[in-house]
UniProtKB/TrEMBL annotation:
This is DUF3500 domain-containing protein. InterPro entries: DUF3500. The lineage of its organism: Bacteria, Bacillati, Actinomycetota, Actinomycetes, Micrococcales. It holds the Pfam family DUF3500. Residues 203-220 have a biased composition (Basic and acidic residues). Residues 193-220 are annotated as: Disordered.
């Protein structure tokens, strides 16, 4: 794109985010330069032959669905560690998910008292929640002493209650050969065996096979102090978006009562620097956070809607209304 078109693309991105959410997105894109240093400036990347730059802050894409200004249309802004969606119906934003943010390194080198940890709050508040649980609550919430190797949903198009992490090579697009992905993963330090299988403990599989309605701890049954921390943590996620979209898109905004069916689950250690994972689930949303890769210095986090990911319910209603068989 030309510089002006690039600015228009970023302006479009900013329309679906709060000022703090846009600052976070901008940081994530710029962090590609730091990651390039950590990876030794490798030029290899599967699916991009002769591109010459493995980690590129400009390697983000805008896709528009429909015609802007129509009764229903949408767009996606996506790249390595950032995916933002927006679906607009009759001038109102009605879907903003899936929303994915990754940070690598999750703590970048900084000078003196400075600290470059953009998802610090999302991590330490969750650890504080676990730290104040009673023994009985911890027995419900903690399902594995070892965190999974990634968020369980990874890049699946819809929330799957039986999802387990895929092998690292399996997350690349179908047009990328196994050899290409394994060569790239090898350059990052993966062995052939590590690239070809998910290395998660049996507790993760048992969690995936359990009844999703009973996974983890029911937040409504915890004390007011724990619920206050949960609200603070959820606020970190929904405040990435304009406040006027919160109730319409997520069914919740800070200050509302927490969803009565909201559940919290944790895997891994409590100490910083060791792999940790957590998730929130309700009838409306799923939130996942995982910091295990690169010696627990590489975060993947996602906010999903169980009703409107990719505007799925909206499209279904449209087809039912406009394309019903006679």
């Amino acid at each position: 794109m030309s510089p002006r078109s690039q600015q228009y693309a970023l302006r479009l991105l900013s329309t679906s985010l709060s000022p703090a959410g846009f600052a976070l997105a901008s940081y994530v894109m710029g962090l590609e330069n730091v990651l390039a240093v950590d990876e030794g400036w490798t030029e290899l990347y599967p699916g991009r032959p002769e591109h010459g730059r493995s980690r590129d802050p400009m390697m983000y894409f805008v896709t528009v669905f429909g015609e802007p200004g129509d009764a229903a249309w949408g767009w996606q802004f996506s790249g390595h560690h950032l995916v933002v969606h927006a679906w607009v119906e009759r001038g109102a934003v009605v879907s903003l998910t899936p929303h994915f943010i990754g940070v690598n390194p999750s703590q970048a080198p900084a000078l003196g008292r400075n600290e470059l940890r953009p998802l610090r709050g999302e991590e330490i508040i969750a650890a504080e929640i676990v730290g104040r649980l009673t023994e009985a609550e911890r027995q419900e919430a903690v399902f594995s002493p070892i965190a999974p190797s990634d968020i369980l949903q990874q890049n699946r198009p819809l929330v799957d209650d039986e999802a387990v992490p895929l092998a690292p090579e399996a997350i690349y697009p179908s047009g990328v050969s196994s050899r290409q992905s394994r060569d790239f993963l090898g350059a990052l330090g993966f062995t052939e065996e590590q690239a070809g299988r998910a290395s998660d403990p049996p507790e993760i599989l048992r969690h995936a096979e359990s009844d999703p309605r009973s996974r983890g701890m029911r937040v409504a049954e915890t004390d007011p102090g724990t619920q206050a921390l949960v609200e603070e943590l959820l606020t970190h996620y929904v405040d990435r978006f304009p406040r006027e979209t919160h109730r319409r898109v997520f069914g919740w905004t800070p200050g509302d009562a927490l969803p009565t069916d909201l559940r919290f689950a944790w895997a891994g250690e409590y100490e910083r620097g060791v792999g940790r994972y957590y998730c929130f689930d309700s009838h409306a949303i799923t939130i996942e956070f995982d910091n295990t890769q690169n010696r627990a210095n590489h975060i993947h986090s996602a906010l999903r809607s169980r009703k409107t990911d990719f505007a799925s319910d909206i499209l279904r209603a449209h087809y039912d209304a406009e394309h019903a068989k006679g």
